[in-house]
Every structure is written in C-alpha cells, then in structure tokens.
Amino acid sequence: MIDVRRLQVLSALAEHHTVAATAEALGVTPSAVSQQLTALARETEVPLVERSGRRFVLTGAGRVLLERARVIFAELERAQADLARYAEGSLGAVRVGSFATGISNLVTPAVAGLRRTHPGWRFSVVQAEPEHSTELLRTGGIDVAVTMSSPHLPATGTPGFQFHPVMVEPLDVVLPYEHPLATKEELDLAADLSDADWIMSGPGTVWFDTVAAACHQAGFHPRNAHVVTDFSAAFALVTAGLGVAMVPRLAWHGTATSHMVVRSVRNGPRRHVLAATRSGADPEPLLTAMRQAASRITVPSGRFILSA
C-alpha cells in the first residue's frame, strides 16, 4: 500500500527539485524528505527520482505515479470538504427503516421536504416492520428505525440504543357508511362495539394485541370475524359491510376508499411512534421533519368520510 504522505513529498520534490527546498516547503527536515522518498521507492519497487546536477527530476515511473497522485489528492480534498459539510450539518447520508404506514405518512413527506431544504443529504428508505427494524439498526443495516411501542422494542436504557418520540397515534374505528353508528361523532368500545363483528390481524401481531388489549380493558373480548394481514384488506371488508375495524390513524390517513366513515374512540388506545438510533447518533434533520409531518395528520371530526 502506497503511503499518501509520501506521494505528497514526491509531488513537492517535482515542484521544487531539491531536497532542501522540498523540506522547507513541507516544514520538515531534509533528512525526513530523503527518508520518505527512499521508503516510497521501496514501496513501489521502481526508481522514482534521479539526480540531474544538483537537482532531482522524476523518472518516467515517477511521472506516471504523480499523475495518479494528483487524482488522489483531489479526491482527498473532496473528502475533507464533505466531512466539514457533514460536521456543520449540510451533508449527510441516512438509511431509514420504517413500517409501511410510517413510510407513507411520516418518512415520505419528511424526506421529500428535506430534498428541498437539505439538498446535500441522501436518504435511503427500507420497509422494516418493528419486529425486524431493531435488529437491522443494531447490525448497521439502517441508521434510523421508525418503529412503535410494542413487545419488540428494546427496553428503555438498553445499551447501544436511544429513542426519540415522533408522535402519539390514536387508533380509530372505521365503519361502513350506512352503519347505525356512523352518525355518532365518538364511539364507546363497551357500549357501542362489544357485539360487533371485528376485522383484525391474527393473534401475536402488534395490531391484534393492541386492539384486543383495548377491548379487554373495556370489559369484552372482540369477536374476530375476519383475519387479515394488511389494512387495505380490512378496508375492503369494512366497505362491503362485513364488520368494523380499529386501526392506527396512520393506516387510514390519506386513504382514498369510498363508503367508509372514521370515528374516534372515547379513551381509546394509543401507540407511541418512535425513531430509534444507535447510541450517540444524531437523528436530525429527519426527526424534526417527521414530527412536522406527524403534526399534519388529520384528526377525525364530525361525519368524516373516506371517499375517492
């Protein structure tokens, strides 16, 4: 491996032609210059300089090497400039992992906005569910994990991780447009929905566990009439009048599905959406941008209708 510092000595010698002048230009002793040139010739295994009277000139091999060295010097200068920009916050590269609805409503608008306000930053987005994102973060597969409060989240204070709140997200009930409860502005789980046909995911998933826990706290066990794995399938069943579903607000926000209404739940469940990073990492400017996106999430009021 050729030492870059020795290439710099070779470049200075090509400009100043004597060991003494080269040493003065570099702020080192003539002996140090001679030692570096000798070591460089040993590394390359070819003669790089030759004496011409009292001066030194580059051999053909030396000129070839110096041409390459100038490219290396330019790249090093660019690298130093990029590091300085990174240190001042105008340059960065971030790999973001998030669950699907977090990508749609938090990560995408945040990254789109940062492309305008922070053009020197590059973002790469990967879909990663909470049960996988922490491991990807730990192993370096991603730099920021947009995740949620769940059994998969490491405990607060776990070495190697730090957590940053993004939003507190309510779960809302989606109903068929013609459902008798569609006229109510707010629903009570026990009074209104204990006898409903529910559309949920399977046991052991975050969605199921959250909804089931809320229903149990209200004093009943939900009748899981239909089991689905994604929210679009749940919305199709609701639209067809086959049941009701309680979904995170990010799941329906921005959805263009007709014949459904959304109702908030009195004292209903909430989940915390978090940005996780490795200890010592700075989640900015992405964290602030996602919080701004979260602040624009619509709150259901009145007879809110999802329609195309």
TrEMBL record:
Record flagged with keyword tRNA processing: no
Entry-linked SUPFAM superfamilies: Periplasmic binding protein-like II, Winged helix' DNA-binding domain
GO molecular function, one term: DNA-binding transcription factor activity
rRNA-binding is among the record's keywords: no
GO CC aspect terms: protein-DNA complex
Domain of life, per lineage: Bacteria
Family the entry assigns: Belongs to the LysR transcriptional regulatory family.
Pfam families linked: HTH_1, LysR_substrate
Keywords from the named record: DNA-binding, Transcription, Transcription regulation
Name this polypeptide is given: LysR family transcriptional regulator
Ranges for domain HTH lysR-type: 2-59
